Amino acid sequence: MRRRRQGAGKRLPLRKSLLGRLLAVSALVAVCSVAATAWLAVQTTSGAIKEEQGQNLTDDARIYQTLLGYAATHPRWEGVDKAVRELAGQTGRRIALTTQQRGPIADSATQASAPELPSLASAIVDPLAADSALAPPSRQSADATADRIDPRAVGPFRLPAKERTRLRQSAVRSVDCLREYGISSDIVVAPSGRPRIEVVGNDPGRIEGTRCSTDSLDEPTATEKKALTALSKLANACLSRQGRDAVQLNLELSWTNTPAPSAAPSTPGVRGPSDDDRAVASCVGTARREQLSSYVASPALLFIGDPDSGSVPGFDLSPANTARIAGAAALVLALTVGASVLAATRLVRPLLALTGAAQRMKDGGYADPARVPVTADNEIGRLAAAFNDMSAHRARLEEQRKAMVSDVAHELRTPLSNIRGWLEAAQDGLADPDPAFVSSLLEEAVQLQHIIDDLQDLAQADADALRLHPEPLRIEELLGQVAAAHQAQAETAGVTLTVTGPAPGAEVPELSADPVRLRQAVGNLVSNAVRHTPPGGRVTLRAYGIDAGSVGIEVADTGSGIPAEDLPHVFDRFWRAEKSRSRRTGGSGLGLAIVRKLAEAHGGTVHVESTEGQGSVFTLRLPHAAALHVAVSAGDRP
Q: What is the pLDDT of residues 37-59, one digit of tens each?
């Protein structure tokens, strides 16, 4: 009967199985790939979109600022075509300006079949009402008219060259004076041409402790006085319509209340949350727009679109951003392929080792069994362990085959040589065919017959063709027959052979077994025990009931015993602890192998227990109903 490898039929937990590992690796690679691709794509694309959109917004703001500055410094739009074409070339956009009634002013699309402009304009270019999202607010200092007038729209406040030169010289003198006091300052020129001094560090109070006066820069010039007077009239006209007192505007567009003839002088007005202040600020803003209207270009509609269409510009990735996204995708692909190759290599490596070992075994590696490393407790690990067991078992079988061929040749050669020698002697007239001669030849022939019969029995057992004829029998009678058959052998060897009965009150159940085969099995054990027991020793046969379903047959001797390292091999064919192969001290080496096969054929087992130098105990364990179980405690020793 073949024994299944312990644990070979158990299913591995999914986390340890090859299928589980494959699923886990595949899922992990897929999840990591998808997550990494999504994350990189989102990050790269978002960054590219922000960059492109930021560039678009920057270009839009630059276009708007440039055209707004042109409108703030020119009373008409004539001559803006050049600026529009330059901006279109720098930004790669189509730029078009129209009147508020959609009359054409300038268009960078010069072809006759240019697409129509969209219905909604990108912005309105009006220096008197600048778009706060595309242009910074007016930088009027402390001015209550926090309006949307572009600071470059100065109109009548623009200084002529003579006044600019005078104020510039005064500013240079003040800067030089402050430098002598260790105060660094810069000259900043306003759009009107008026210079002002800015102290580095933005701390104007540092000037007060010096002799450097900047009062000349704070006084309005004749041009500015004339413009302020006109502006004040316009603002006062607005206030008069609201029934409010007139004001006098200062250069920085703050104001001073103008008292009535009967009223006491009033202090300069300070912007605050009062209704009067809000009304003055509103009228000043209205007056400024009225005053500047003739100095700036009229409002125009601005259209910014794609060069080949009139629509609002779409989103197109730049080549650099496209390359970055492609590189990120390629990186994820490379990592995914690398992880897959690594995982596949780790899974395939043990299979390759198994293939190589199998190839070496095919090429005839019997002397050195092919082994593969067992690295994990999974399907491949168990396959590798089973392969190692098979390789070692195959190597053992090959060694046993070689030894068996040698042993069979040895066992057959000796009796055949004796028979041939006697026959040749008789043929040559050197020996007489007397009864002793015939008896010697018969003895050698019987020995040959025993070896052949043993080999035939083993062959039948291996082929599951060993025929049994079970019948009811009493084991005590069978043991007596075996003892009687081997009594002469025991007496010749000086060994006491006895049969002991069961303990008082204990009964041995009746067996159902093949009496011939059972006597053969027990006889082999007795013959083996007598052969390895020195003169004066004892061999004892005993039968007893083990439990309700089995019977034990024990053959014990006081012989030489079997070394512990040899016990696993005692039932191997032709195996001997001693390699001398002496026929005088050993049999054919097949007796115990036949005992095991006969025990298994009856459904039983054989077991051996032995202590070197003290003896051995062989035990056959038989199910009393139908089969024979044999447990033996020594092997067929030399």
A: 777 767 766 666 666 666 777 88
In angstroms, rounded to a whole number, what is the distance separating the alpha carbons of residues 67 and 84? 8
The string over 240-270, giving b where at least 16 C-beta atoms fall within 10 Å of a residue's C-beta and e elsewhere, is: eeeebebbbbeeebbbebeeeeeeeeeeebe
Distance CA 419, CA 408 (A): 17
Residue 123 per-residue DSSP state: E
Q: Which residue has the higher pLDDT, 136 or 210?
A: 210
**pTM recorded for the entire structure:** 0.46
Distance CA 318, CA 324 (A): 10
**Dihedral angle of Cα 619, 622, 627, 630, to the nearest 10 degrees:** -10
CA atoms of 136 and 258, how far apart (whole Å): 33
- Of 600, 599, 596, the closest CA to residue 635 belongs to 596
Q: Can you give the pLDDT at residue 354?
A: 78
The answer to whether 523 and 566 are in contact (CB under 8 A) is no
Identify whether the C-beta of residue 84 lies closer than 8 Å to the C-beta of residue 107: yes
3-state secondary structure 95-120: EEEEECCCCEEEECCCCCCCCCCCCC
SS3 437: helix
Q: Which pLDDT tens digit goes with each residue over 185-198?
A: 888 898 988 998 88
Q: What is the pLDDT of residue 266?
A: 43
> Is the model more confident about 558 or about 369?
558
Output the furthest CA–CA distance in the chain (Å, rounded): 184
What does the pLDDT look like over 396-445, one tens digit per residue? 777 767 766 776 776 677 678 778 887 887 888 777 777 877 777 787 78
> 490 burial class (0-12, 13-18, 19+ CB within 10 angstroms)?
buried
Cβ atoms of 122 and 63 closer than 8 Å: no
User: What's the pLDDT score for residue 491?
Assistant: 92
How big is the chain by its Cα radius of gyration, in Å? 60
Percent of the chain residues topping a pLDDT of 90: 11
- In degrees, to the nearest 5, what angle opens at C-alpha 126 toward C-alphas 122 and 131? 60
Q: Pick from 109, 105, 108, 120: which is nearest to 74 by CA?
A: 105
Q: At what angle do helices 319-362 and 379-427 cross, to 10 degrees?
A: 20
Which residue is listed with tokens 């703050």? Answer: 254
**200-237 core/surface letters (b: 16 or more CB in 10 A; e: else):** eeeeeeebeeeebebeebeebbebbeebbebbbebbbe
